Hints:
Layout: H1 3-17, H2 22-31, H3 46-62, H4 66-92, H5 96-124, H6 130-150, H7 152-173
Helix pairs in contact: 1-2, 1-4, 1-5, 1-6, 1-7, 2-3, 2-4, 2-6, 4-5, 5-7, 6-7
Amino acid sequence: MNILWVIGLGSGLAGAAAFRAIFPLILASFTRVVNFPPALKWLQSTPVLLFLLILMVVEFLIDELPGVSFLHSIIYIAIKVLVGGILFSAAVGINPFIGIILGGLITGFLIFSRLALEPWIQREQPYFRHLEYQTIENLASIVLTIIAIAVPWFSLLVIAGLIYSTIKVAQQVA
């Protein structure tokens, strides 16, 4: 496989996990687009996929509740970073420890960028309600996962665009 393809796939899935942890894991497991190491092959089993589907629905529903959403986001940071690292490691096919760290860094950066931008979005776009913000996050995860699987190299451009926009907004806020 082309190095750009596997890095794009891993980065795109890790980036998608920053918005919703479970969706990219389900799609990557179901499509078998990543080659999980033997210790993680159970992630592709039917019972686990069904459990992850239920968990994904719960994640989507919980995140729609404004009071619960913040606590859910805090708790889910560690899960999102771990899932992003696992997906990156499995996609790229490198040492799991190194892959989890690199993928976790991609996921973590996008999580904290999103958290840093949230007050700016609420201040600059007061009509932006919680439900619309969560819908955009859901769509971001779905679109980035599909891009990562269908056109992996393009996910690198999407992530670079997200990083660039975060830096530009941070400069405006400062």
